[in-house]
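Notebook entry, cofactor series.
This is the third protein in the set we're modelling with a bound small molecule. For this one the ligand is NAP. I'm keeping the input format identical across the series so the outputs can be compared line by line later. Sequence and SMILES below, as received.
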Amino acid sequence: MLGTDLVTALLEADHDVTGLSRADLDVTDAAAVDAVVAGHDVVVNTAAWTAVDDAETHEGDAFAVNAVGPALLAAACARTGARLVHVSTDYVVGDVPAGTPVPSDVPLAPLGAYGRTKAAGEWAVRASGADAIVLRTAWLYGAHGGCFPKTMARLARERDVLRVVEDQVGQPTWTVDVADLVVRLLAAGAPAGTYHATSSGWTSWYEFAMEVVRSVGRDPDMVDPTTSAEFARPAPRPTWSVLAHDSLKAVGVAPIGAWRLRWAEASDEVLADA
Ligand SMILES: NC(=O)c1ccc[n+]([C@@H]2O[C@H](COP(=O)([O-])OP(=O)(O)OC[C@H]3O[C@@H](n4cnc5c(N)ncnc54)[C@H](OP(=O)(O)O)[C@@H]3O)[C@@H](O)[C@H]2O)c1
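Returned structure with ligand:
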């Protein structure tokens, strides 16, 4: 989902781009990673095991993609001198108290198997000696993958009432905006470090669902609030996924705009085939 929009954004910014799908490169294959990194100035890793619930029962498989893969990419970049942009997640931060956006230097306390494997990926990248940017994002939606707004749009057409959790708060973020931020960080020559690629402001899944339902022309009152306890899932979910944009501001790179405005811009494209 993110990788497709990233290739588009890099091409539009006049970069020469090699976009690789999983069929082109298995990031857990060291020799293959070395071969493709050669000759590139910048490597952006958007590959991941993203099935959060399945990771609970397949942690070893998730670890291979989310930790070993970034370690191999970072080692190859360290050898060749290429910059690495590695995409990470709010799940590495853990279940922090609500109220204040989480700064980029927060100590990691990963949540669930997915969080543990992604945190291991971050540490591998930092330990590699590569010139690396760790870019954490969250609550992603986009035209090129399954995502929450597409599911809500479909259910809004099929059902009379939608029940959506109100006690998880975060920053709905468009893949196009993350891709644009990668382009801007590279153009700015941002120093190695950890940055947060999420929309500004915050909301609950319940409120976001109402916004999506409005976008498809249905009455937002069809959405009823529920709680995480009533909607149990195999993997734990963070209740406060609100990431601060402190390190972006410190290097003079503008954070992504307010989530509601960005959704207004994104909704037609994202829901085109929903
Ligand atoms: N989606 C979210 O809400 C969200 C939130 C926070 C952070 N992130 C992070 O954002 C990044 C992009 O996520 P996304 O939503 O774009 O996920 P996505 O659509 O699931 O893309 C991940 C890609 O990685 C590929 N992949 C899996 N194993 C691989 C391997 N061994 N070698 C090479 N490629 C492999 C997948 O291929 P297959 O489809 O063939 O398996 C898929 O194309 C990830 O780092 C993710 O952890 C996502």
